[in-house]
Design brief:
By secondary structure, the chain is an alpha+beta fold. Helix content is 44%, strand content 15%. Residues 634-638 have low confidence and may be disordered.
């Protein structure tokens, strides 16, 4: 919907406008600022008009007496019900935006309002009546929010590029975060590439006074942490999945502008479109075709997307791109993402969102979250079959892992065996968390410079995940623990931020019906045996969708929404490797060992090692450093 930023403390007022300019893409329709000079408070907003397109939806939005001011990014899907409740209590409204409802709800309930909200949001509320600032992020972390709590006070923004003009001194790299980016291709937890810049966590809130964090707490905990577990039968699970999906899509279609949808041809996006079509038979859908094919072992999405569009009778527009364009846009992607996420799927989101925007769409529905609620990734299959071998002594399991490391990485199935056995010698939660890793820590240590290794101390990439899982009782099984990590980390630290930032780069908001809170809560009640049946992931969702989608779409092979990176890394991306990862560049940066990086490139070229994504991660970190460290964003010019 928008972009927000602000501060509470001793900051340069002019820097606020610089930050707003940096995130202008998030809100091309309107802009506004608020200052309370005496308190040292400033709030800024860039608006993408979705609900109440009139000036009555302008932000920052203040109460009639000026005592409370709000900046808000996102959508509150149950705002109409909340509005009716507030009107019954005597509140009146001038417009019909969810922003105005959020402001009134704060007046009525204060911080206790958070559990009442079904939506995607990041907001800050300045309450001049008690000189406090209230900051919060939505339950599943759909909307991003970064902050810096330093000696000058507290500052925040929807994107790091908007925050840096306020805190240009915050340019020290965080080695532990960089290690996690290389381990997972993304960074789990609150960390960012900068030590001083943190993420507000999913379902987290902060209360500030005098420019300092007075209290920081988690207002939403995932259902298993509250004792919610699978307790319904198959028939109820099927019927409930359909009813909750239908309701979620209906809620998220509410807008005063046209709403379209992603359609990859996978089960998740196809399910969203099937229910959206019930509300809007003319909904427009968008997909992508990457010329040059897909990696060996992957499935082409386009035939399935076309099949679904024909079955449902909806328009499907296709954007066609090639490797040359993607290679040329890699730097743009990293800069827009704010973080060195090593995945080309964000470019797909960018290209589809641009096509949608050119077609008059400001809002798109996405199928993100289906795999994370109902299972669907290959690691879920692996975890489900662990009982077949996890009883073996640790020495045998470690031997199997070493044997898998020697397999020819040019074969897709051998790559998967290698990944399956990675961490086989580990036990308990350590092995579950390790399924998310892309590279072994021992291998990464060989890539690092001595100085970088020493800065890591004893930190491990999986530390945040293990700490998060620790309070769970043993009765919470392997696969359920894995889904918890999907929802707490993989979604908000990887899939959701790249979807948000690449779509907002062209002024498009993406909504995620699978992460509707009512659906999330219901999905937690479905027994794991109804989600993953042997090798069949999303079993219950597939059964639920059989009346609505073609059988061959529902039971098609699983495919990622990406590009043939492995081949491109040996061809189209070679000039990037020669420039960004040259021995001179590596030595100048001081993070990695130049000779080790060159050996990795050579091993990947020969096929001895499947190093494409590790190389992409190294490229991303160097691109990020050149744009955020070497040329800090402290002026209005890009």
């Amino acid at each position: 919907m928008c972009g927000i930023l602000g501060y509470f403390g001793s900051f340069d007022r002019s820097a606020l406008q610089v930050g707003l300019d940096r995130i202008a893409h998030r809100g091309p329709d309107d802009s506004g600022t608020f200052f309370d000079e005496a308190a040292g408070v400033a709030l800024g907003h860039r608006r993408l008009s979705i609900l109440d397109l009139s000036p009555l939806g302008h932000q920052p939005m203040s109460t009639s007496d000026g005592g409370v001011t709000l900046v808000f990014n996102g959508e509150i899907y149950n705002f109409q019900e909340l509005r009716a409740e507030l009107e019954a209590k005597g509140h009146s409204f001038r417009g019909h935006s969810d922003t105005e409802v959020l402001l009134a709800l704060y007046l009525e309930q204060g911080e206790a309002m958070l559990p009442r909200l079904n939506g995607i949001f990041a907001f800050a509320i300045w309450d001049a009546r008690n000189q406090s600032m209230f900051v919060a992020r939505d339950a599943l972390g759909v909307k991003p929010l970064y902050f810096c709590a330093g000696t000058r006070g507290f500052s925040f923004a929807s994107e790091i590029k908007g925050l840096l003009p306020l805190v240009p001194e915050a340019r020290t790299l965080d080695p532990i975060a960089l290690h996690r980016y290389l381990s997972f291709l993304w960074c789990p937890g609150e960390g960012t590439p900068l030590k001083a810049v943190r993420k507000v966590l999913p379902g987290e809130a902060l209360m500030l006074r005098a420019g300092k964090i007075e209290r920081q707490w988690i207002w939403y905990r995932l259902p298993p942490f509250r004792g919610v577990c699978g307790d319904i039968d198959e028939a109820s699970a099927i019927a409930g999945t359909v009813s909750h999906m239908r309701a979620a899509v209906k809620r998220q279609l509410i807008a005063d502008v046209p709403v379209g949808a992603f359609l990859s041809g996978g089960l998740d996006s196809s399910s969203v479109v099937a229910f959206a079509r019930e509300q809007n038979p003319n909904i427009k859908c968008f997909t992508i075709e990457a010329t040059g094919g897909v990696d060996v072992g992957e499935t082409d999405d386009l035939p399935y997307a076309s099949r679904v569009a024909k079955h449902l009778g909806v328009d499907l527009e296709i954007v066609r791109i090639d490797s040359g364009r993607m290679a040329g846009d890699l730097e743009r992607m990293i800069v827009q993402l704010d973080e060195p996420l090593a995945d080309l799927a964000p470019l797909n989101v960018l290209y589809i969102s641009q096509l949608a925007r050119d077609s008059g769409m400001k809002v798109l529905l996405s199928g993100s979250g289906g795999d994370d609620l109902f299972t669907g990734y290959r690691r879920h299959v692996a975890a489900n079959y662990e009982s077949l071998w996890s009883w073996l002594p640790g020495g045998i399991r470690r031997g199997a892992e070493r044997a898998a490391m020697g397999l020819d990485q040019r074969s897709a199935w051998k790559r998967r065996i290698n990944k399956l056995m990675r961490g086989a010698g580990l036990d308990g939660d350590a092995r579950i968390a390790n399924y998310f890793a892309w590279a072994r820590e021992s291998e990464l240590m060989g890539l690092y410079s001595p100085e970088f290794r020493s800065q890591l101390g004893g930190a491990h990439a999986t530390d945040p995940m293990l700490e998060f899982l620790r309070p769970l009782p043993p009765s919470v099984g392997r696969l359920e623990r894995m889904l918890i990590l999907e929802q707490q980390y993989f979604l908000p630290d990887h899939n959701l931020p790249y979807t948000d930032k690449m779509s907002m780069a062209v002024g498009v908001e993406v909504r995620v019906p699978f992460l509707d809170l009512e659906l999330v809560e219901f999905a937690a009640r479905i027994p794991m045996a109804l989600k993953q049946r042997g090798r069949e992931g999303k079993w219950i969702l597939k059964k639920a969708m059989e009346p609505y989608l073609p059988h061959d779409v529902i039971y098609r092979p699983k495919s990622g929404f990406s590009a043939p990176l492995r081949g491109w890394m040996r061809r189209e991306f070679k000039p990037l490797l020669a420039d960004l990862l040259s021995a001179e560049s590596i030595r100048r940066r001081g993070l990695f060992d130049a000779a080790a990086v060159q050996r990795l490139i050579a091993a990947n070229d020969s096929g001895r090692t499947d190093g494409a994504y590790s190389l992409l991660s190294l490229l991303g970190i160097e691109i990020w450093c050149r744009n955020y460290i070497d040329a800090p964003m402290t002026s209005r010019s890009s």
